[in-house]
Amino acid sequence: MAAKEVLVVVDGDEKTGRPDPEPLPILHSPKGKMIFVCVDQSAFSTNVVEFAANHIARPEDTVCLVTVVPFEPVPYRTGHLSQKVKNEIKDFNQKARKEITEKTQSFLQELALRIKDINAAIHDNCEFRVFYSRHDRPLKKLLVTKIEKYKPSLVILGCRGLGKVGRTFLGSVSDFVVHNSTVPVAIVK
Amino acid sequence: MSEGKKRIIIVAVDESEHSKNAWKWACKNIIIDSDVVHLVHVFNKTSISTYDFVSKDYHKLLELEAEYHKKVEEISASLLRKMIHEAKEAGCKADLKSKVLEKGEKSPKQVIQDHCDKTEGAAMLIVSSRGAGALGRAFVGSVSDYLVHNVKIPVVVVKN
């Protein structure tokens, strides 16, 4: 009955050509579609999630709660490090990523409970996705690339998030995604 | 979807192919049987009369103008009727209402914005990202961009 657990999503590496371990979300029925609900840790995200559950999602759809978390892995690709040190750094990076993922899991679980209050059938088909942004993969472009890759049927965003913007203005992330996404976008006010 | 009341959904269209695709998408993905849908089109009521009040033919010009307005309104209404008919043939059972709004001195963007803000119980507005005046490189047209920023209800921008 619980929503699916948080997947530790590793950014696939286009430069080295390693295979991408990100699995696509499971569509539970052929009539159902995939909906991305982009949330962050601001108070406005509850409005976004409630709008999605009340007005858009149907019981056969898969709702993905998507959030982007900043994470800088320690670089180890330089040539002059020994193999032992490289392995240590790799382990450290993995541990740090797991810790951050666990911290984001708590607020994603809270949002999933909100969906459950509205409609338990949608909650059964919920998934969580955490993407990691770096200084060279900024948040806005990362969201747009992931949307192009996963191709959801609809992306839902709030008009503002952690930044402090007035009531009817549009935040920079939402503005960027509306302009550059290839997929229908819904903005919640 | 646990809505007891009927919700109102506003879909703004023009004559372009993009708007038709947006309408089809909305009927398939968002509209449920218990909705009331306002299909909105803004028609341009330009004045063709001159300011020549002294002329003998002024009343004729007024008659011509009235006829012209009626024809333009009829074109808008027939476009909306066609869209509603297509939706009903595809199996949409919601309450589809066409609203032809006249553009007076305000721009079409403001007319749609006023309609959205004044309709009580409006759940969301659905627009297509581009319309009749589509620039090749622009990803979001000026009307949908304005509506996303200025309308107080949630907006869905449909892209193709």
On the 0-100 scale, what is the average pLDDT of chain B? 85
Number of DSSP strand runs of chain A: 5
**Largest interface, C-beta within 8 A:** A-B, 26 and 24 residues
Q: Proportion of β residues of chain B? A: 15-25%
- Succession of helices and strands of chain B: EHEHEHEHE
The chain-level structural class of chain A is alpha/beta
Strand order of the largest sheet of chain A: 3-2-1-4-5
Q: Helical region count of chain B?
A: 4
Helix content of chain B: 40-55%
Question: DSSP strand (E) fraction of chain A?
Answer: 15-25%
User: pLDDT under 50 segments of chain A (min length 5)?
Assistant: none
Number of strands of chain B: 5
Taking the alpha carbons of the first and last residues of chain B, their distance comes to 26 Å
Oligomeric form: heterodimer
What's the arrangement of strands in the largest beta sheet of chain B? 3-2-1-4-5
Rounded mean pLDDT score of chain A: 83
| Rg over C-alpha atoms of chain B, rounded to the nearest angstrom | 18 Å
Question: What is the topology?
Answer:
The complex is a heterodimer of chains A (189) and B (160).
Chain A: E1 34-38, H1 45-56, E2 62-70, H2 83-118, H3 120-124, E3 126-133, H4 139-150, E4 154-158, H5 172-180, E5 185-188
Parallel strand pairs in A: 1-2, 1-4, 2-3, 4-5
Chain B: E1 8-12, H1 17-29, E2 36-44, H2 58-89, E3 95-103, H3 108-118, E4 122-128, H4 142-150, E5 155-158
Parallel strand pairs in B: 1-2, 1-4, 2-3, 4-5
Helix pairs in contact in B: 3-4
